[in-house]
Write a structure and sequence with these properties.
Elements: E1 4-6, E2 20-22, E3 27-34, H1 49-66, E4 74-82, H2 89-99, E5 107-113, E6 123-131
Parallel strand pairs: 4-5
Antiparallel strand pairs: 1-2, 3-6, 4-6
Helix pairs in contact: 1-2
Length: 132
């Protein structure tokens, strides 16, 4: 039974995400927030939000693969960005579109935060996936 992606007529049209995702899948996968650490625990792209975003998505992709899922199975994401500024949105949207299915983007929440777990971390992305 597939996931359904809905954008109600009465809500503004989303750009790069879906307002409502319903699921009747049989397996739910919760991925902890992924940051820009490489395999050895070293930060990738110190001071570079774009580079850290790419690494966080790569880590998310690998985490999903370990559970037998892909980025296309994500139904909900939350992105946390340190000292968020609205001018970051185009870069973030571009990165999401490079990794996610543009025809079925997940529900998404973007949260600006004061800090994350370590001072060098600029972005953290968590996700929930459901296998059809």
């Amino acid at each position: 039974m597939p996931n359904t992606f809905i954008n109600p007529d009465g809500i503004s049209a989303p750009n790069g995400y879906t307002h409502v995702v319903t699921t009747t899948g049989h397996r739910t996968i919760y991925i902890s927030g992924q940051v820009a650490f490489d395999r050895s625990g070293q930060i990738v792209g110190a001071g570079d939000l774009r580079a850290q975003t790419v690494q966080a998505f790569e880590n998310l992709r690998m985490a999903l693969a370990a559970a037998g899922a892909t980025l296309n199975d994500i139904v909900k994401m939350t992105t946390f960005i340190v000292n968020y500024k609205p001018e970051y949105r185009p870069m973030l949207r571009e990165a999401r579109l490079n990794y996610l299915n543009a025809a079925r983007p997940p529900a998404h929440t973007l949260v600006g935060v004061q800090a994350l777990a370590l001072p060098e971390i600029m972005i953290e992305i968590e996700a929930t996936a459901v296998l059809d």
